[in-house]
Design goal:
Rieske Iron-sulfur Protein; 4-stranded antiparallel β-sheet; binds FE2/S2 (inorganic) cluster
């Protein structure tokens, strides 16, 4: 586009608007180029001291970014990964994660803020028109396209066959409703269903044995060796004399809440006293269902006692009450209190104290 089509480029008035030529152009063509507004110099364009001050501010932001990066590296080296601090309003969180997040955040923010401040105060802000060809096709092409469209509409019978036209419009209008109906899959809310599992049938008078998920055999503490990971489910109870069986109609639903991970840790290595008391001679029984969105956890690292959820990498320290040490899970894995019966088999005498599974929003614990 040539300059004579850009009234604002050299014809704009003090109020930043192009007038006579622009109004005439708009009358002729509703898409006429409105032109560029008048250019107003910034303070930093006319005041060298203001420009110097802006330069120092930009440099200060970049220097702050450098210091934050040094802080990031120092935090990584100096802060104990297991150190927990209380930070309002986040609660108890890893000191290392907090320091790394803050320093990296400040470093990136300062680079971005410095670049924006530089661009807004010191870089040239004079607008430049870019030449390009006219978008509008010539009259001959436009007439040809309109003719083709009319021919196509006539041949398809869209205007003549009103029944097809109306039913097509109706079907197109209704099809988005399918997406609205699918919203139902976001519910229903679990309400209190996760507050109770199959273990709630257990009482001190009628304990339920822990049964090996693979062998269907009840287990004794000596069957659980240090470093191993064993999966368990509820054995026989007064309400379920056969115990939870694979062929039960409700097996999948029940196992999704009842499944346990059994590990054994030297009692002296268990950091959380409450967790040690819920176990039996170092044997600990945790819910196998991840507290993020409910994937079954199956990876255990015996040296660190960390359990890893394969779905989104939430990591739980099973030696410390299954505390979340990494990932999106919002709660520790619930732990089932276990003991032994008169025959020496591992049993539960009560349900989990907190709901198992995902951290749904109305959850109370
Ligand atoms: S379901 Fe376990 S981390 Fe997401």
């Amino acid at each position: 586009m040539s300059d004579d089509k850009l009234p604002g480029a050299h014809g704009a008035t003090e109020d930043g608007l192009s007038h006579a030529s622009g109004e005439a152009a708009v009358a002729d063509n509703p898409f006429a180029d409105p032109g560029l507004p008048a250019h107003h110099p910034r303070r930093t364009d006319i005041d060298e001291r203001a420009a110097k001050r802006a330069e120092r501010q930009v440099s200060l932001l970049f220097v702050t970014s450098m210091l934050a990066t040094v802080g990031f590296i120092a935090s990584y080296v100096a802060i104990d990964p297991d150190k927990i601090v209380y930070i309002f309003p986040l609660g108890h969180i890893s000191a290392l994660n907090f320091a790394l997040g803050m320093t990296l955040g400040v470093a990136l923010f300062c680079i971005g803020a410095g670049a924006v401040h530089w661009a807004r105060t010191l870089m040239s802000d004079v607008e430049m028109p870019a030449e390009r060809h006219a978008i509008e096709a010539d009259d001959e092409v436009r007439a040809d396209v309109i003719e083709q469209f009319k021919t196509g509409a006539a041949e398809s019978g869209f205007g003549r066959r009103k029944m097809i036209r109306n039913t097509l419009i109706g079907s197109m209008a209704l099809v988005p409703l399918s997406g609205v109906v699918l919203l139902r899959d976001l519910g229903p809310l679990p309400e209190t269903k996760l507050d109770h599992t199959g273990w709630d049938e257990a009482t001190p008078a009628a304990p339920i044995r822990l049964v090996n998920m693979n062998t269907n055999e009840p287990m004794k503490p000596e069957d659980i060796t240090v470093g191993s990971l064993t999966f368990a489910k509820p054995g026989p109870s007064p309400l379920r004399p056969e115990g939870l069986q694979d062929h039960d109609v409700d097996f999948q639903e029940a196992i999704a809440k009842d499944a346990l991970m059994l590990i054994r840790i030297e009692p002296a290595d268990i950091k959380d006293d409450k967790s040690r008391d819920l176990g039996f001679e170092g044997v600990l029984a945790y819910s196998k269902i991840c507290t993020h969105v409910g994937c079954p956890i199956s990876l255990y690292e015996q040296q660190t006692h960390h359990a890893l959820c394969p779905c989104h990498q939430s990591t739980f320290d099973l030696s410390d009450g299954a505390r979340v040490i990494f990932g999106p899970a919002g709660h520790p894995l619930p732990q089932l209190k276990i003991t032994t019966d008169a025959s020496g088999y591992l049993v539960a005498t009560q349900d989990f104290a907190v709901p198992v599974g995902p951290s749904f929003w109305e959850r109370s614990a």
